[in-house]
Amino acid sequence: MSSVALALQDGIVVGKRNLIKITRVPEILVWITMSPIMFVLLFSYVFGSMIEIPGMPYREFLMAGIFTQTVIFGATFTGASLAEDMTKGIIDRFRSLPMARSAVVVGRTGADIFYNLTSLVLMTATGLVVGWRINTGVLEAAGGYLLLLAFAFAISWIMAFVGLKVSSVEVVNNASFMFIFPITFISNAFVRADFLPGPLQTFAEWNPVSAVAQAAREAFGNTGNLPQPDVWSLDNPIVYTLIWVGIILAVFVPLSIRQYNKSAGRA
Amino acid sequence: MTDMIKTSGLVKRYGKVVALDGLDLVVPGGTVLGLLGPNGAGKTTAVRILTTLLEPDGGTAEVAGIDVSKDPDKVRKRIGLSGQTAAVDEHLSGYENLTMVGRLYHLGARRSKERARELLERFDLVEAGDRPAKTYSGGMRRRLDLAAALVASPDVLFLDEPTTGLDPRSRVQMWETIQDLARSGSTVLLTTQYMEEADRLADDIVVIDRGRKIAHGTADQLKNQIGGERIETVLKSADDLHPAQTILQRFCVGDVQVDEQARTLTAAIDGGVDVLRSVLGHLADANIAVVDVGLRRPTLDDVFLSLTGHHAEEVAETNGDAPEAEPERTTERDKEAVR
Predict the structure, then answer these.
(1) What is the pLDDT along chain B (339 residues), one digit of tens a residue?
(2) Chain A residues within 8 A of B77 when measuring between CB atoms
(3) Region for A67 from its dihedrals, namely left if φ exceeds 0, alpha if ψ lies in -120 to 50, beta otherwise
(4) Contact B88 A89 (CB under 8 A)
(5) Residues sharing a CB contact under 8 Å with residue A43, sequence separation 6 or more, in sequence order
(6) Residues of B in contact with A25 (CB under 8 A)
(7) Contact yes or no for B88 and A94 at CB 8 A
(8) Which CATH architecture has domain B3-224?
(9) Domains of chain B: which residue ranges?
(10) Is B55 on the interface with A (CB under 8 A)?
(11) Which residues of B touch A94 (CB under 8 A)?
(12) Chain A, chain B: beta-carbon pairs less than 8 Å apart
C-alpha cells in the first residue's frame, strides 16, 4: 500500500476513535446538538425581529450567516480536543506505534467533518421550523452545504495548529473566540457588507467568511432582491472561497503535522 | 544470542539538567533487564529514547539491530511499550482500544479483532471488554495497557515502572504476567524503583543514578558486592536509638542505618550468630528493650542504598549529631527507667 493510502487509513482509524468518544461523553453530545439549535433560535428571534435590511426579510438573509458562523465555531472543538489529547498518555502510545505521523491530526479534522455535518442538519431542521426555506434545487443546496463543510474543514486545520501549539484547552477556547468573533462579525454574515463604513467594508468584502456566507445564500436562494455585489470576491464567492480553502490547507496541513511531532516531544 | 537492545554513551539534556550522562546498556535477546534507580535517575528518559519518543543528544541506541534515530519507524514495528501512566483511551472500551492499536500496527481488520479477543482473554478482561476503560480499576488499566503493548507480539518489550501505584494484589498479578512473558522468550527492558521487583523479574540488573550506570550484575552479584548478612534490630523506644547505634557500630562493617520512624537499626556484620549474641548481650547490659531482632541476607534495597549513597548521606548527618546529643539522651532515658 502506498504511504499516502496508509496514512489515510491510519487517519480513519484515529478518526473512528474520535467519533466513538463523541457518543461516550454526554456533555460533548449536548454541546454538539444544542448549540446549533440555540444559535438559529436566538439569532432569528432576537435579531430577526428587530433588524430590517432593505431588499429582503432579515431572517431569510440571516440563516446562511448563522450556518457559516456555527461551522467556524465548530473548529474550536478541533483545537480543544487536540490540546486535550496532547496531555494524555494515549499520545505516547500513538507515537510508539508504526503509524503515520499525520494520523492523529488527520483523524481529528476528519472526524470533525461529521461534527459539522451534524450541526448543519440540526440547524437546517431548526431553520425550517422557524420558517426559513431553501428556494433552489437539491443540487444547488447540496453544493452550498459542501462549500460550508469544506471551509469548516480548512478552519479546523488552523485550529488544530493552535491547539497543538498551546496544548491548553482554555487557551484554545479564548484564542479562538478572539479570532472568530471579528472575522465573522466584520463580514456579510449578519449585515450587508456594502452598508459597513469605509475600511470595515473593504475588510468585509474580501473576508473569506463573507464569500462563504454569500455562496451559501445564493445556493439556498436566499438573496431576495439584494443587488448583485460589485466586488470580485463576492461576485464569484465559490471560486474565492475555494481559493482560501486551498491556501489554508496548503499552509496549515504541513504546519499542524509538524507541530504535532514537535509538541509530542520529538523535535 | 544477539543483543536486542544496545545503547552506547547515551546523553540527553533538558536545558541544564542532564537526564542521561553517557548510558551504556546491553540486553541479550530473550532476557529481562531491570533498570533500577530512584525518581529522576533517567530511567524513563532511557525508555523514551529507545521507544523513539525522544531524540538523544548524544550516543547511539539500537533496538533489534536498528538505529532508533535513523530508522524510528522500523523500530516501532518491533517494539511494544507499556508506560508509567496507562496509555489507553479512557472513552474507548478495552476491546476498542486493542483493535485500534492492532489497526495502527497494520495487522488488518480481522487479525486486529482476533488479537484483541485473545488478549482480553489472557489478561482476564473479557467481562470488562465492552466497558469504557475509564470504568476500570488501576490494575485493570495497567493490564489493558500491557495488552496493548503486546498486540503485535513485539520482539522487544519496554515496561516503564509497570507496577508503580498498584495495590499489592495487582502488583503480584502483574509480576506473574511479566514472568510468563519472560518465560515465553520475550526480550524485556523493565524500569522500576522497587528492588523486590527487579530481584524477582530481571535476569540482569543495571542500577542507575543521575543518568549514569553505577552498578551492573545479577541480583546475587549485586548483593554479594556489598558484603554479607544484615543484623536488624527493632527497639521498643525511639530514645534508645542512639545508644543502641553506638553499640552496634562496634560490631558492624560500614555504617549503621537508622530508621527513626520504625525505630529500626540495620547494620552489615561479619560473623553471623556469634555477633548477634554479643550485640544482644550489650543491649541488655545497657538496659535497652528490643522488640525484634534478626539476621537477614542483604536485599536489593541495601544494595541500592549503599550504591547511590542517598541514604548513607542521611546516616552521616545523624552520626554527626549523635556524639553531642547522646549523653543527654542517655541520662533522660536513665531517669525514665528509674521512674
Answers:
(1) 689 999 999 999 988 889 999 999 999 999 999 998 888 889 999 999 999 999 999 999 999 999 999 999 999 999 999 977 768 999 999 999 999 999 999 999 999 999 999 999 999 999 999 999 999 998 899 999 999 999 999 999 999 999 888 888 888 888 998 998 888 888 999 999 888 888 899 999 999 988 999 889 988 888 777 767 888 889 888 888 888 888 888 888 778 888 888 888 888 887 778 888 888 888 888 888 888 888 887 776 777 777 766 642 333 333 333 333 333 333 333 333 333
(2) 98
(3) alpha
(4) yes
(5) A62, A65, A66, A190
(6) 91
(7) no
(8) 3-Layer(aba) Sandwich (3.40)
(9) 3-224, 227-338
(10) yes
(11) 104
(12) 77
User: In whole angstroms, what is the distance from residue B79 CA to residue B27 CA?
Assistant: 14
Out of B87, B91, B106, the one facing A92 most closely (by C-beta) is B87
Using only the alpha carbons of chain A, give its radius of gyration.
19
Longest CA–CA separation in chain A, Å: 60
**Closest residue in chain B to residue A101, using alpha carbons only:** B73
DSSP characters over A104-145:
HHHHHHHHHHHHHHHHHHHHHHHHHHTT----S-HHHHHHHH
How far apart, in Å, are the Cα atoms of B125 and each of B45, B116, B122?
31, 10, 8
Choices 3.40.50.2000, 3.30.70.100, 3.40.50.2300, 3.40.50.300: CATH for B227-338: 3.30.70.100
pTM, whole model, 2 decimals?
0.82
Spell out which residues of chain A touch residue B54, defining contact as CB-CB under 8 Å. Answer: 265-266
ipTM for the complex shown: 0.88
SS3 B4: strand
